[in-house]
Amino acid sequence: MQKMTCASCGAPLEVENQFIRSVTCKFCGTAYMVSGSDTLDQVGKTVSLADYPSRLNVGASGEIRGRSFKVIGRVRYAYNEGFWEEWQIIWDDGAPPDWLEEDEGYWTVYKRDRVRGAVPSYDQVKVGQSVTINGRSVFITEKRTARMVGSEGQFSSVLPLAGSFGYIQGSSSESPVSINYWEDEIELSVGTDLEHNEIKTKS
Fold this sequence. Notes:
single chain, about 200 residues, mainly beta, eight-stranded antiparallel barrel, two-stranded antiparallel sheet
């Protein structure tokens, strides 16, 4: 774990592991990009998050299907009809961080997948059609635009602090698939749906 200092308020910042790309100061909301082994580049400020009832919080730990994890970050996205939250989790076994998504009481753990080959643009995709992504057929069930409304903690991605982005969701061989069209990057994730009792948190 690397220990650094927030340039805005002087609070300590801790970078959990080598996969972290951005970190948000929990005291003043200043966001940084992790640019090297011991440097931080300030990228802006994020809005602090109001607490909503949830089983998780940054710093919480537990198990998913017997695999131990720790929550290191939380981000909230809003769209016209509501919002959803994603929790950045790290695994005790040293694997790269994953995302645990909570949306209307349903939980999905998403693993980022490297994009291989062409991906249809956001404008080309339509709900109800099937598209080929990384050699797999994905049936599109949702297409929206969203924006980030707040974050805390640290992340394996550099989050979009301003503006809106397009995202699509679908399914492939019963696995949920999510694509975020950031300004300069396409982020592809493949998920596993979880039952409520498969997430066990420690008090």
